[in-house]
Amino acid sequence: MAEPVYRRVVIKLSGEYLAGSHFFGIDQPTVDRIADDLIAAHKLGVEVAVVIGGGNIVRGVEVSSRGVSRPTGDTMGMLATVMNCLALEAAIERKGAPARTLSAFVMPEISELFTRSAAHKYLADGRIVLLGGGTGNPFFTTDTTAVLRAAEIGAQAVLKATNVDGVYSADPKKDPSAKRFDRLTHSQAIAGDYKVMDATAFALARETSLPIIVFSIAEPGSIGAILRGTGHGTVVAG
């Protein structure tokens, strides 16, 4: 088996993906399958941190479009990410692997506060670390959170797990002629306005020299394949 390309990564998971075939909520078989993939990746000897979106429960932009202020809507969305982290933490630990949720918000009865020292400690202790609460600030996506946390904890890459196998020039589900890229620079990704990740996340990754690997989470074992350098995805770097 090939050695992992990276030793510490942040994996960005879509909240919507946790809903499985449903429009809302947490689909337990889907959560269990993702937990299996994360545990398998961890067993490769990789230190794994995870950032999860909250779109399966609350999307801040959608809430604010219905009359709630944007800061309040985004806060609701960030709280949804904590709920997703707790669900995934429970699934991982139920399968016998250690995990720990760290939140950007002070909520001692629910989870420990994120600090760089806490994240370093739990990763070094062999735990899968789940990073909830976004950045703790409105107007920032969980994509940006993933890059920010990766830079803060010294991760070597951000793995963006999505529903397509890389970055395309357009939505391949709507445009059959969409071109798939094997590799892009951060600047090309920003200039192309590719919707797989927001421009702020790409810009921060460029500033911090962090590669982003965009790949499909649909196939079991896809995280491990990316970590071993054998997976199918788009590398955004340089």
TrEMBL record:
Which coarse location class describes where this protein primarily resides?
A: cytoplasm
Subcellular location, in the record's words? Cytoplasm
Ranges for the Aspartate/glutamate/uridylate kinase domain?
8-216
| Name of a matching Pfam family | AA_kinase
- What residues does ATP bind to? 12-15, 55, 59, 162-163, 168, 171
Report the EC number(s), separated by commas if there are several: 2.7.4.22
Listed pathway(s): Pyrimidine metabolism; CTP biosynthesis via de novo pathway; UDP from UMP (UMPK route): step 1/1
Question: Any idea which positions bind UMP?
Answer: 54, 74, 135-142
Gene Ontology CC, one term:
cytosol
What InterPro entries does this protein's entry cite? AceGlu_kinase-like_sf, Asp/Glu/Uridylate_kinase, Uridylate_kinase, Uridylate_kinase_bac
Per UniProt, which keywords does this protein have?
Answer: ATP-binding, Cytoplasm, Kinase, Nucleotide-binding, Pyrimidine biosynthesis, Transferase
Q: How is its activity regulated?
A: Inhibited by UTP.
Q: In its keyword annotation, does this UniProt entry include Acetylation? A: no
* Catalysed reaction, written as an equation: UMP + ATP = UDP + ADP
Zinc is among the record's keywords: no
The lineage's top-level taxon is: Bacteria
One GO BP annotation is: 'de novo' CTP biosynthetic process
The GO terms this record gives for MF are: ATP binding; UMP kinase activity
Going by the record, the broad EC class of this enzyme is: transferase
- Stated role: Catalyzes the reversible phosphorylation of UMP to UDP.
| Protein family membership | Belongs to the UMP kinase family.
Subunit field text: Homohexamer.
NCBIfam families to which the protein is assigned, alphabetical: pyrH_bact
The name under which this protein is listed is: Uridylate kinase
State the organism of origin: Bradyrhizobium retamae
Protein encoded by which gene:
pyrH
